[in-house]
Design goal:
This protein is α+β, with helices and mostly antiparallel strands and about 130 residues long. It has helices at about 10-20, 25-35, 40-55, 100-105, 125-134, and strands at about 60, 70, 80, 90, 115-120. A 3-stranded mixed sheet has the order 4-3-5, with no helix packed on it. A two-stranded antiparallel ribbon has the order 1-2.
Length: about 130
């Protein structure tokens, strides 16, 4: 495989993602990176996010809301998706890697891994709902 040529735009996108824990969409990445580089285009951001995800330098999350979210943390971890506000949050929890063994127990193929998302209402939305009910 050919060596990937350095790109200032790609580096800016990666640097931005590394400062975030909220798993932004391409549009959010674009709006923020554009503050540093007003000449960057939305297309450039999309292309670079796709490239970075394809080569494994960032993670692309598809949580069911129709847009891709991006995460600089490529280590195995789990995410929570708020069904009220749409936020995607890292869950601090131990590994549930044993789920792969459970899934494979009655399966005649080979399971290589899994992606797990947890859904519900985040703390912020829960508190807001409680205030409305008061």
């Amino acid at each position: 495989m050919a060596t990937l040529k350095y790109s200032k735009q790609r580096e800016m996108i990666k640097d931005f993602l590394m400062t975030r824990k909220d798993h932004p969409t391409a549009d959010i990445v674009y709006m923020n990176v554009r503050q540093q580089n007003p000449n960057i285009s939305l297309g450039t951001v999309y292309r670079n996010l796709t490239l970075l995800a394809d080569i494994g330098e960032i993670a692309r999350l598809r949580v069911g809301d129709g847009v891709d979210h991006f995460d600089a943390d490529t280590s195995p971890h789990y995410h929570f998706v708020c069904t009220e506000c749409g936020s995607v949050i890292d869950l601090e929890m131990g590994s549930i890697e044993s789920i792969t063994e459970v899934a494979g127990a009655n399966f005649d193929g080979r399971i290589a891994g899994h992606v797990t998302y947890f859904y519900g209402t985040c703390g912020h939305c829960t508190k807001s709902q409680e205030l409305i009910q008061l």
